[in-house]
Design a protein that fits this description.
The chain has three domains: 177 residues, 2-Layer Sandwich (Beta-Lactamase), CATH 3.30.450.40; 151 residues, 2-Layer Sandwich (Alpha-Beta Plaits), CATH 3.30.70.270; 246 residues, TIM Barrel. Helix content is 47%, strand content 21%. It has an eight-stranded mixed beta barrel with strand order 13-14-16-17-18-19-20-21. A five-stranded antiparallel β-sheet has the order 2-1-5-4-3, sandwiched between helices. Helix 1 runs parallel beside helix 6. The longest helix has 32 residues. It is extended and about 105 Å long.
């Protein structure tokens, strides 16, 4: 017998023994490729299989093939001009290409052959025991050549062995799925979830991360079974499983825990808001009726939530606490979520109410603007006013922006509120001008507008609609928004500034704008961050940073304003160091429109 045939038989024997002994699939597939490469000098071997869609081929083994080649091969679509492997699968027959640079079967991937020196490529279909096509085995050569009879025999046998290995892998995967998947919904089952959660908690302990467990129970599911039958009940559970999949994030684990109970593990959570978002999404998804057997089945869900490490460090307790919280949600009226720690639930429920009230507030015209004047160092009014949004809450009274702006962002109301503020301030300013009241400009904080898609267009449109001259408007831009890459924003501000709108750099000293960049920004005024004023409350305060900011602004020809001036000591220090403008309760609190008009008239 030919020595090469002896080697072939020996390598096949070793590989099949590895399969029988339960060696790893990747190890045995790689071993098969390497053994074939030894028998065909100056060659590389690869194995490709169909993805789940059975539309594309991906590389599963190619131990010596460069990663760039593997990347370009992944996603190959079977066809008659897409290379040897694609053609072999497409035609269900061995393909022997001796010259990749001229053979039409390589027409679509000729560049791959040129880039990596592939001059010949032989491929054989890989099938399972039922004769179903599952992929291909290929030998690529760096020299043009036809395969010998032995090499044809080699590639055929290698494809058969690859089929055996892949068949075993698929069979064991099916066994694993049966043992760890819920048969009805396809989600992971209770034992699999418990094992996953055990690993997740151990990992969270090591990395000091946070987890959340969401226990979901369908309300009144028994009524659906009793009314429409168990088949309809199964249909509902399958549909709910699909809806819950839409609620989970990448990396989360969703399981059917039994009956009409589902459980979701959220890993690496950043804050409470991300948990409540998922919980509310679950409530909303389950509230939509399910169509089954021609009937519309109404549903709702109760969700209980426990947190690691807040509530417990142990798996069993976290599951138990989430279960208890779920029953608490049911006792509170169902169709909602509840945290194991009641204090958290109260906070979340209060935020939820606030969000609903915010939406009503815009519709019911509950917002108003107050105006706080700015003063010169000598105590006289400068003529500039800062517009501050307030909420006339029906039960809590007048709320400042700090009480509700974070919720405005969470509720996605930034665009609506920001345009309202700009419109209201410009309308009011135009009304004052028409009445002959003396002021220079109204300043509006730009932080409200950070989510506007066309900020420049909105400002221009509002100025046109209200008839307010652009010289009467000032936009305050937080320093952090102009730090780093903000060329587009700077360009918009430059355009507005050219039209006459003033621009102030707000919260200066904390946002990270470099000194080199500062001189090129389109700004007219520096507004110091409040921290620099707060630190002046006592005698002997460190004034070095204050002196630097004022000197730097002076060198750039920019006036400096200090906010939140509340004591005489702060005023004296700021004036002595050369601060140009002052604002705060020492001079005037934010004033309602009628109060401010009285002040303007008295000027």
């Amino acid at each position: 017998m030919d020595n090469r045939e002896d080697q072939l038989l020996l390598s096949q024997k070793k590989i099949l023994e590895s399969v029988a002994l339960g060696a790893g699939f990747q190890e045995t597939l790689d071993q098969l490729c390497i053994a074939s490469e030894h028998l065909v000098p100056n060659s590389l071997c690869s194995i490709m299989v169909f993805d789940d869609s059975r539309q594309h081929l991906n590389v599963v083994a190619a131990p010596n093939v460069p990663a760039e080649v593997v990347e370009r091969l992944n996603g190959t679509v079977p066809g008659d001009t897409a290379g040897s492997c694609a053609v072999a699968v497409f035609q269900n027959a061995p393909v022997y290409v001796s010259d990749t640079l001229s053979d039409r079967r390589w027409a679509d991937v000729r560049q791959l052959a040129l880039d990596f020196g592939i001059k010949a490529c032989w491929s054989h279909p890989v099938k399972n025991v039922d004769g179903e096509m599952i992929g291909s085995f290929a030998i690529s050569s760096f020299e043009q050549r036809e395969p010998s009879y032995f090499q044809q025999q080699l590639i055929t046998e290698s494809a058969n062995i690859a089929g055996i290995i892949l068949e075993r892998r698929e069979r064991e995967k099916n066994l694993w799925d049966k043992a760890h998947q819920d048969k009805l919904t396809g989600l992971c089952n209770r034992p699999m979830f418990d094992m996953t959660m055990k690993h997740a908690v151990a990992s969270a302990r090591r990395h000091q991360a946070q987890l959340a467990v969401l226990f979901v129970d369908l309300d009144n599911f028994k009524i659906i079974n009793d009314t429409y039958g168990h088949k309809a009940g199964d249909d509902v559970l399958r549909e709910i499983a699909e809806r819950l999949k839409r609620c989970q994030r990448s990396g989360d684990t969703l399981a059917r825990y039994g009956g009409d109970e589902f459980i979701l593990l959220l890993e690496n959570i950043d804050d409470l808001h991300s948990v409540t978002q998922v919980a509310q999404r679950i409530i909303d998804e389950c509230a939509t009726p399910v169509l089954t057997g021609g009937y519309s089945a109404g549903l709702s869900a109760s969700v209980g939530i426990s947190l690691f490490p807040n509530d417990s460090l142990e798996v069993r307790e976290l599951l138990s606490f989430a279960d208890r919280a779920m029953y608490k949600a049911k006792s509170k009226g169902r169709n909602g979520f509840y945290f194991y720690e009641e204090g958290l639930t109260r906070v979340v429920e209060a935020k939820k109410r606030l969000g609903m009230e915010l939406r009503n507030a815009l519709e019911n015209n509950e917002f108003s603007l107050y105006y706080q004047p700015m003063f010169h160092a000598d105590g006289s009014m400068s003529g500039s006013l800062e517009a501050l949004v307030r909420w006339n809450h029906p039960s809590r009274g007048l709320l400042s922006s700090a009480d509700f702006l974070p919720m405005v962002e969470e509720e996605g109301l930034v665009d609506e509120l920001s345009e309202w503020v700009l419109l209201e301030a410009c309308f009011q300013a135009k009304a004052w001008l028409d009445r002959g009241l003396s002021f220079e400009k109204v300043a509006i904080n730009f932080s409200l507008f950070t989510e506007q898609q066309d900020f420049y267009g909105m400002v221009v449109r509002v100025l046109k609609d209200t008839g307010l001259p652009s010289r009467c408007l000032e936009l305050d831009i937080a320093e952090s928004l102009l730090a780093g890459q903000s060329n587009e924003l700077c360009a918009e501000l430059m355009q507005l500034r050219k039209s006459g709108v003033a621009v102030a750099l707000d919260h200066f000293g904390t946002g990270g704008v470099s000194l080199a960049r500062l001189g090129h920004l389109p700004i007219d005024l520096l507004k110091m961050d409040r921290e620099f004023v707060d630190c002046l409350a006592e005698e002997g305060a460190d004034l070095r940073l204050l002196k630097v900011i004022i000197a730097m602004a002076s060198n750039l020809g920019l006036p400096v304003l200090a906010k939140r001036v509340e004591t005489e000591l702060q005023r004296e220090t700021l004036v002595r160091e050369g601060c140009d403008l002052l604002q705060g309760y020492l001079f005037a609190a934010p004033l309602a429109v009628n109060e401010l008009e009285n002040l303007l008239q008295s000027r």
